[in-house]
Design brief:
The chain is built from nine helices and nine strands. The chain has 246 residues and is an alpha+beta fold. The chain has a single domain, classed as Jelly Rolls, CATH 2.60.120.620. The strands form two sheets. Strands 1-7-4-9-3-2 form a six-stranded antiparallel sheet. The model has no long low-confidence stretch (mean pLDDT 97). The protein binds 2-oxoglutaric acid (AKG). 2-oxoglutaric acid (AKG) binds at residues 48, 96, 111, 133, 144, 193, 197, 199, 209.
């Protein structure tokens, strides 16, 4: 059993072999370099992640198949069974890196606060819904800071004020209940996007996040079908279930 339901996250050291990380590293770097060329302005303005590695034309078919097979690998299937009540779906991928300016502050948030849902609806949704990141660092990184249990529980007042910049608080203010998980190449951090969290910048970090969510209509609204395998690529993927839901 993992610790997801209780804490909202779990951390598995040396989950991947060096070969497994090396098997996707070149693809991630290729995507990142092409993305940076096209998004120089956004990068200059402080953006610290890209997304949708499996759509668009930065990667070729063979590279996408490698990524899809990585995303749906057997070792993940086992973990997903322990997290989701039913077979989840693949939502998206992201790459996280350091912002261009060293002075840029990080920010506490729940991903759900950016969906446009009312606060009351968010409070209800987190009690049952699951949006889960699998963070795969290509380099050692200072990690993520998380507030345990907040994937199911609502904020303390101070936490709410900080992540919403209310009452003179800044989104980067330290929070007492935060726990930092440092990550090395080869490790895996699984955490709920609904919990209160923030990235810790530095070390020229470079991490792949794979996002899975419940197979429910409310979540399917967020699926961009361009991120799913084309019919030709679909045939070449070993484990198809998490991509086969539309
Ligand atoms: O690593 C970060 O900068 C933040 C990560 C995050 O917010 C997320 O994965 O939802």
């Amino acid at each position: 059993m993992n610790n997801y339901e209780q804490s909202g996250y779990f951390y598995l050291e040396n989950f991947f072999s060096e070969n497994e990380v090396a098997g996707i590293e070149k693809i991630l770097i290729k995507f990142h370099e092409l993305w940076l060329t096209d998004h120089a302005e956004n990068y200059k303005n402080g953006i610290l992640n890209s997304h949708s590695l499996t759509s668009g034309n930065y990667l070729n078919e063979e590279e996408k198949i490698t990524l899809f097979n990585f995303i749906s690998q057997d070792k993940f299937q086992e973990l997903l069974k322990g997290i989701f009540p039913n077979t989840p779906i693949f939502l998206n991928t992201q790459l996280f890196f350091d912002p261009k300016s060293r002075d840029q502050k990080n920010y506490w948030h729940r991903d759900i606060q950016y969906t446009g849902m009312s606060v009351e609806d968010q409070k209800q949704a987190i009690k049952t819904q699951n949006v889960v990141h699998f963070r795969i660092p290509v380099k050692s990184e200072l990690g993520i800071e998380l507030i345990p249990k907040t994937h199911r529980e609502w904020d303390l007042q101070k936490e709410f004020d900080v992540r919403n910049s209310l009452k003179g608080c800044n989104q980067s203010d330290d929070l007492e209940r935060g726990e930092i998980v440092k990550l090395d190449r080869g490790d895996l951090l699984v955490f709920s996007a609904n919990m209160i969290h923030r990235g810790i910048y530095g070390n020229n970090r470079f991490s792949l996040d794979i996002i899975f969510c419940d197979n429910i209509p409310q979540m399917k609204n967020f699926v961009d079908r361009n991120n799913l395998p084309s019919s030709k690529v679909f045939e070449a993927i070993r484990n198809k279930k998490i991509f086969d839901f539309l």
